[in-house]
Amino acid sequence: MIPMVDLKRQFNDIKDEICAVITEVLESSQYILGPKVVELEKQIAAYHGVRDAVGVASGTDALHLAVEALGIGEGDEVITTPFTFFATAEAIMYTGATPVFVDIEPDTMNIDPIEIEKKITERTRAIMPVHIFGHPADMDRIGSLAKKYDLKVIEDCAQSFGAEFNGKKTGSFGDAGCFSFYPSKNLGAYGDGGMILLDDSAVTADIRKLRNHGSRGMYRHECVGFNSRLDEIQAAILLVKFRRIDAYNDLRRQKAALYNELLTGDIELPVERPGCRHVYHQYTIRTDNREKVQKVLQENGASSVVYYPVPVHLQEAVSILGYKKGDLPVAEAAAEKVLSLPVYPELEESSIREIAEIINHA
Ligand SMILES: Cc1ncc(COP(=O)(O)O)c(C=O)c1O
User: Fold this and answer.
1) Beta strand 283-286 pairing with 152-156
2) CB under 8 Å to 263, separation ≥6 — which residues?
3) CATH number of 7-242
4) pLDDT, tens digit, for every residue of 237-251?
5) 182: nearest Cα among 66, 277, 60, 47
6) How far is the CA of 343 from the centre of ligand 1 (A)?
7) Which protein residue has the closest C-alpha to ligand 1 atom 10?
8) Pocket test for ligand 1, best of 56, 80, 85 (most atoms within 8 A of CB)
9) Cα of 218 to ligand 1 centre, how many Å?
C-alpha cells in the first residue's frame, strides 16, 4: 500500500542523528525546558525573521495560548474559516470567545477576505486565518482589514511550515503565528509539540508564563496558567529535522509538480497563486466522483484521505452556534469534493505515476 505519509522511512534516513540527540538529552537529565527548547525557539524565530518563539505542548495549545495572551475571551468574536481541522475553532472556544465562520475562496480553499469584512462587528477582536494544506491565506488583504478595524491576527500555521506569501514566511505576518509539530506535519516531532511566533515582547512574556502554570519560575505564580511546554526530547528531534525543512519542502513541491503534470481529466488540481510558495502539507484534488476515485485507489493499493468531510460550522460540537447547511456554500462544496493524495519528501516518483494513472483511468 502506498501510504499517505511514511514516517518510518524518514526515521530510517536520519536514525543515527535522532538516536544520538535523544541519548544526549537523556544523559543531560534536563527533560523540561532545557537548552534544546531554547535553541529551537531561537532558530525558528530567526528563520521567520521574528523576535520570539515559544515552544508549547501542541499546535492546539499554541492557538489557545495565543488567543488567551492577546486578551481575547468571553463576549469576543474571532473570525475564522470553517474549512480546517477542528482544533482551530476549539482553541477559540476554550477562552470563552465565539468563533465566527466565514466562507472560503474557491481556488485556495482559504478564508475569503471579502467574507471576513461582511462579518466584522463591534465584538470582533481577531481574525484567525489557516494556511490550509500549506497554501498561504491572502495575508495582504487580511492585514489591511486588521489594520482598518483594529483587529489582532492569529495565524494557524499548523500545515504551512516554510510557506511564503510575497516572499515572507507564514507565521511572521500576524500578532501570533501558531505551529503544530504533530508527527505528520511538514516539520513533525515524534509526539506532540507546537510553537508560537511573536514580535511583541510583552505578549511573549505572557505566553511563557501561561505555558508554565502562570509562573516565571521558582514557585511564584502571577496568573493561573497551563502545563503546556514543548518536551526537551521533541525539541532535540525537531532541531535535527529543522536543518532539513527547506529540502523536505522542496521535495514536496517536486512531488506536487509531478502530480500536476500527470493528472488529467475532470478533476480540479490544487492551485498555487502568484507570489505564493505552497508547501503541500497535503496535495488535495477536487472531484465530483470522489467515492469512485477513492475506491479505485484503495483497490489498487494507494491511500487517500478526505480532509475534511464536514466543515467546522456543521460539526455537532458547535451546533449551539446555530449554523445550518447552506450557510457557507463554498466550504460545504469543498468538503464534498476534496481528496488528499499521498505526498511526502520520500514518496517515489513511480508511486506518483501509479496513482496518477489509476485516477486518470477512473
Ligand atoms: C489546521 C490545524 N490547526 C490546528 C491543529 C492542531 O495541532 P495539534 O495536533 O498539534 O494540536 C492542526 C493539526 O493537527 C491543524 O491541521
Assistant:
1) unpaired
2) 269, 285, 356, 359, 360
3) 3.40.640.10
4) 999 999 999 999 999
5) 60
6) 18
7) 59
8) 85
9) 32
Residue 110: pLDDT above 90? yes
Question: Residue 59: which region, alpha, beta or left (left: phi > 0; alpha: psi -120 to 50)?
Answer: alpha
Contact of 78 with 99, CB cutoff 8 Å: yes
**Does the reported pTM lie above 0.85?**
yes
Out of 3.70.10.10, 3.90.1150.10, 3.60.90.10, 3.40.1280.10, which CATH number does the structure's domain 245-361 have? 3.90.1150.10
- The backbone torsions φ and ψ at residue 341, rounded to the nearest 5 degrees and listed phi first, read -105, 160
C-alpha 209 – ligand 1 centre gap (Å) = 22
Where do the structural domains in the chain lie, given as residue ranges?
7-242, 245-361
pLDDT tens digits, one per residue of 117-127: 999 999 999 99
For 141-199, write each residue's pLDDT tens digit. 999 999 999 999 999 999 999 999 999 999 999 999 999 999 999 999 999 999 999 99
Q: Which residues of 288-325 are buried (b: 16+ CB within 10 A; e: fewer)?
A: ebbeebbebbeebebbbbbbbeebbbbeeebeeeebee
Question: What ranges in 190-229 are assigned the alpha helix state H?
Answer: 201-210
d(CA 132, CA 35): 32
